[in-house]
Amino acid sequence: MMKFYAPLLLAALFASPVTADTTELACAYKLNDPTNCVRFVGCVNNGDTHFLGRAHGWDTGALDGITSSGATCAGDWSYDDRINQGKGAMSCTDGNKTGFSFFSRDGKVQAFTGVIISEDGDRMSMWTGGNLLNYFAEKFPDQTEPGFLCGENWVPFSASFLKTETD
Which residues of the chain have pLDDT under 70? Predict the structure, then answer.
């Protein structure tokens, strides 16, 4: 089993990117609310695979999501507001597991970012936050559909990923 160390996420490390649209990923951002939900995404090895998921709670909570290879993942996380850092753990149905840490990137756009490095040297970049969609819209202003760049591959967000719990 492969273990990853450092900032948020996990992904199966052997599939090519595809739009993950196989689970319901509705989410609603609720400031200072334990029922809060924010989306998170990750990119492995500059485009080998990607991950779409949700983080539930405020300061502590659960994670769930799906890799582009179809593995589902779940775990937990906690955040220390005093030092702007968090940590957690996640495991997937394909047998992959990870421990991770993350940090606040930008208070203005409420985005967090991190990098996971596996024992084998695989690298995954991740992004999450209450304003993730606007963060990517600002980061990739020339794109006509919401998504993110994973290596050289544009990963469009599926309708279920964009859906809010009030839709």
Answer: 1-25, 104-110, 117-122, 165-167
Is the separation of the CB atoms in 124 and 4 below 8 Å? yes
CB contact at 8 A, 150 and 50: yes
- Numbers of helices and strands, H then E, in the chain: 2, 11
Residues 6+ apart with CB under 8 A from 158: 19, 20, 21, 25, 52
Closest CA to 43 of 72, 73, 68: 68
- What pLDDT does residue 33 have? 92
**Whole-number pLDDT of residue 57:** 94
Contact yes or no for 48/154 (Cβ under 8 A): no
| Structure letter (DSSP) for residue 22 | S
Q: Residue 91, SS3?
A: strand
DSSP state, residue 45: T
Of 39, 35, 45, which Cα lies nearest the Cα of 15?
A: 45
CB 51 within 8 A of CB 42: yes
Residue 72 pairs in a beta bridge with: 66
In angstroms, rounded to a whole number, what is the distance separating the alpha carbons of residues 90 and 134? 26
